[in-house]
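User: I'm writing a tutorial on reading structure tokens. Could you give me a worked example: one chain, its sequence, then its tokens, then a sentence or two explaining what the tokens reveal?
Assistant: Sure. Here is the example chain.
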Amino acid sequence: MDSGGDLSGYTFGPFERVTLDDPVFDSKDRRDRFVERLRSGHRFFGFKMDGRVAAYFWFSISCVVPLSLGAKAEIPTGAGYIWDCRTAPEFRGRGLYASGLRLLVDVNRAEGRSLTLIACDADNVASRKGIDKAGFVQSACWEIQRIGPLRFARKDSGAWQNVSLSRVIVL
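And here are its predicted structure tokens:
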């Protein structure tokens, strides 16, 4: 599949090692999460330019991944899931996000899976635009609400269901 943007100068692929002092890891405990996620079997893909991480994407299969507000999702067998993506500020506006999503759909298909899932917060306009540009189609909308230690979820404006931290939402 054509990635859609001008990617000359960028290298895209899975990275098991990156320089953790790269500015893309500067905040939100990203360094620690990177190491732990790789140990847990999640895969790290990204675009690099001149040795720097320009954008990254986590990719997982048949596992449990975190969602907003402490909820979790179980990725069904036969599906790949793209999550926790980030483009470094100086590389934004170049189409890397949508291009990376399309390339990961290709990776997922090449590995024999026909379904690629992605989720984002409803108020994340930039993410939603990139997801749309990459050709994803919304199949469900989960709303998660936190009230104290409890999590409530509802699908497609249906009935609210209590979701404990140990309970898994199946996408």
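What the tokens reveal: The helical segments are 30-39, 96-110, 125-133. The radius of gyration is 16 Å.
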